[in-house]
Write a structure and sequence with these properties.
Elements (H helix, E strand, L loop, with lengths): L4 H11 L9 E9 L4 E5 L12 H11 L5 E10 L11 H10 L6 E5 L5 E5 H4 L12
Parallel strand pairs: 3-4
Antiparallel strand pairs: 1-2, 1-3, 4-5
The protein binds tetrahydrodeoxyuridine.
């Protein structure tokens, strides 16, 4: 199995940038692109609550806006501010966003508590029978 500790370390760094004055639940994500580049994201909350965006989508949208379209894996780590990290699984919206840009059977999702302690899934496992770009091809 591949050593993902480098990507999980990036997610831990990304978590430091999270803006979470309401939930105090900090999440970091690090997205590995096909060309080896890594994009980080931390969740960003809002006083109006619903505009809040998850760490995963911050990382993915940054990459997409830099022209990246091939994605290999994303590492996610989250937990309460000042507390222990838990296994923080991506929400349904983020899984669907991943689906837009990832090959479901190949894309890896690493849900980490530390660089050594993590669970590894494919997107296919976390979002089976999904709806994607191919559904809209004529
Ligand atoms: N959150 C993420 O950033 N990613 C996840 O995978 C789950 C939840 C954020 C959204 C919100 O800022 C906070 O965690 C509590 O829901």
């Amino acid at each position: 199995m591949r050593d993902w500790s480098f990507l999980i370390r990036e997610a831990l760094k990304a978590r430091e940038a999270a803006y979470t004055p309401y939930s105090h639940f900090k999440v970091g994500a690090a997205l590995l692109c096909g060309d080896g580049t890594i994009y980080r994201g931390g969740n960003i909350e809002n006083a109006s609550y619903t505009p809040t965006i998850c760490a995963e989508r911050v990382a993915i949208f940054q990459a997409v806006n830099q022209g990246k379209r091939e994605f290999e894996a994303i590492a996610v780590c989250g937990g309460p501010e000042g507390g222990e990290l838990q296994y923080c699984a991506p929400c349904g919206v983020c899984r669907q966003v991943m689906r837009e840009f990832a090959v479901p059977k190949q894309f890896r999702i690493l849900i980490a508590r530390s660089p050594e302690e993590f669970k590894e899934y494919t997107l296919e496992e976390l979002l089976p029978e999904s709806f994607g770009p191919d559904n809209l091809k004529q």
